[in-house]
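Why run this: before we spend reagent on co-expression, it is cheaper to look at a predicted model of the complex and decide which construct boundaries make sense. The entries below are exactly what would go into the expression plan.
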Amino acid sequence: MSRLEQGLARMRAAFSASLDKILTGRGSPDLGDLEESLILADVGPETARKLIERLKHIPSRGESARDSLATALVDMLEGEPPAPGLRLSGTPSVLVLVGVNGTGKTTTLAKLAARLGKEGKTSVLAAADTFRPAAIDQLQVLADRVGARVVAHRPGSDPAAVAFDAVQAALKKGNDLVLVDTAGRLHTRAGLMDELGKICRVIGKALPGAPHEVLLVLDATTGQNAIEQARVFKEAVGVTGVILTKLDGTAKGGIVVSVRWRMGLPIRFVGVGEGMDDLLLFDSREFVQALLGPGR
Amino acid sequence: MFGGLTERLQAIFRDLRGRGRLGVPEVDAALREVRLALLEADVNFRVVRDFIERVRSRALGAEVMESLTPGQQVIKIVHEAMVELLGSTPVGLDLGQDLPAVILLVGLHGAGKTTTAVRLAVHVKDRGRRPLLVGADVYRPAAGEQLAVLAERAGLPVRVAPAGSDPVVVTRDYCRQAPALGCDTVIVDTAGRLHVDDALMAEMERLSRDLRPRETLLVVDAMTGQDAVNVARSFQERVPIDGFVLTKLDGDARGGAALSLRAVSGRPVKFAGTGEGLGDLDIFHPERMASRVLGMGDVLALIERAQQAVDEQTVRDLERKLRADAFTLEDFLVQLRQVRKLGPLEDIVKLLPGMPMRGMPRGGVDQRELVKAEAIINSMTPEERRRPEILDAGRRRRVARGSGTQVQEVNRLLRQYEEARKMFRQLARWQRGAGRTSPAPWPPRRG
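The model came back. Tokens follow.
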């Protein structure tokens, strides 16, 4: 079993059982039941309806119905045209993590450093969450664990200045990556969204072309509000992709289909556990395979 | 992306001129829209199904009131049923007589337990109790520091279990020490845990057995999707949950999780987190939540749409809401947003007999004004938001600088706020007056 399959075990169990019933029942597959399964997985009513429209012409039951569903899901997840891969072309490449409160930005940042560190890339972590008490301490502890360097200022200081200094530090030392942690903020707070815009602009001043990726960190247990989050963050700071966290704890996560399909944002990574190596590259086929279970 | 439920129902019933009783076709058409609205709001699929079934039987054959359209009638029935399900009246804490009273906060990662712990402490302190904050999260790096910093900010005593210690043993000790510290309430912040993580769930059970909390509150993110029911059930299987705290309600999530939680657990949502400040914890109001989940912004929308007729009960509800608001600048901001969403406030207030029309904020508020107003209010200290009268010239200059606006704009906002506050005061006075004398029958019958 792959790491992804292990992490998605719960999601698969919940989804596959009901799916089996639907696809192997007598008569033609009950699309009402399929809609229910999709909605229960947080795919959302609108996207579920869209998927079902695509499936209206399921040729027969059993294997091929499962295949059509898999194909439809992969299509929606890959998007048209397929999204380009993660841009790590800069020297250094600057990645900024953004998102609402409590989605796991700080933890994910450390995991990202660990993951890219294994590929031989050195990272500087920018502790630009200067708002949440002890966020800087938390990042420092995690950074020690994964052996990355932290650039931090005092709590309450200007986050854009932290990011700027981190980029400068990486330029000086020749690091490959700058990973910027930002304070969680609800997308409805216009002032805080402006602050995020400023952080990105200042990064661009320190290094033209940066940031190379702005990644929205989404909690997999989030429901339909994720779409609104994606829309507003994308408008405000040009989000380039999504990291889905806490996928191991939920039987859901279907929201990624909507975020990809309706917001056009590619899913970059998924977090499937509490360990530092539990951040996996997202692959649509693998994900759908893990979700629907192996065909017979 | 998604029009209001009211508008869509309006569209369905546009051609339907019939009065009398609600029949099968209109009820089913309306309930299809209601169902979709609830699913978009993340109410659990099965909870929606049961709910719709119940509402359907209630709506069928119901008489359409004089001046409501059939669509409005259905919404009224749905809204009432939802308030019932959410528990008609707000439920606060029940801390009993035993000392110290222990409140245990549990929940998934990132739900907002630590912030809620401190807010809850502020809440009970404001009600005359002496809280001790205890941090039992020995896993997340710097979790204890976060609690300690927030506690210090709120001027509250705090004890934190050191990383690597057994949180159950340490927390029990702290609870025993509470009386000696002069504290009668202990609020325990625990580590975030997945409901499928058996080891951590077992630790929570031990905490609950040892501490015998008077209140165990499950903290849930208002943005939670369909999984809310599983979370509620799995925690409830392990420890007796007395209620929920719904956090991050200051965002724009419709918060359907509230309905799911209540439906599967039978326990009430007790508090709502509504901002980033330490005072931003409100008693949960089922009625407001029902309107929000339905995507009606507020029940005010219902009144506005009902135009020609508002029944007595609705008027009373509106009045109670407005009067209960200790109308601060933050409430004002919320009002501004609603005004923008609903159209002119005058139209609504016109419906209330004897309401003075002076001092109304005129017209709508455009998006840019709203952003400015928000920036201005956000640039104030919590104290200033509560007591705007302390905003002297120096403070106003600072607020203008902080929000990137002009002092004149700050002044204008404060004037608008003062006018709105006056209006609400008049509204309250009008209501009291109406209570003394016996008012004319309302609504007045047409023809």
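Residues 16 and 292 of chain A are 6 Å apart (CA to CA). The first strand of chain A starts at residue 93 and ends at 98. Bring this page to Monday's planning discussion.
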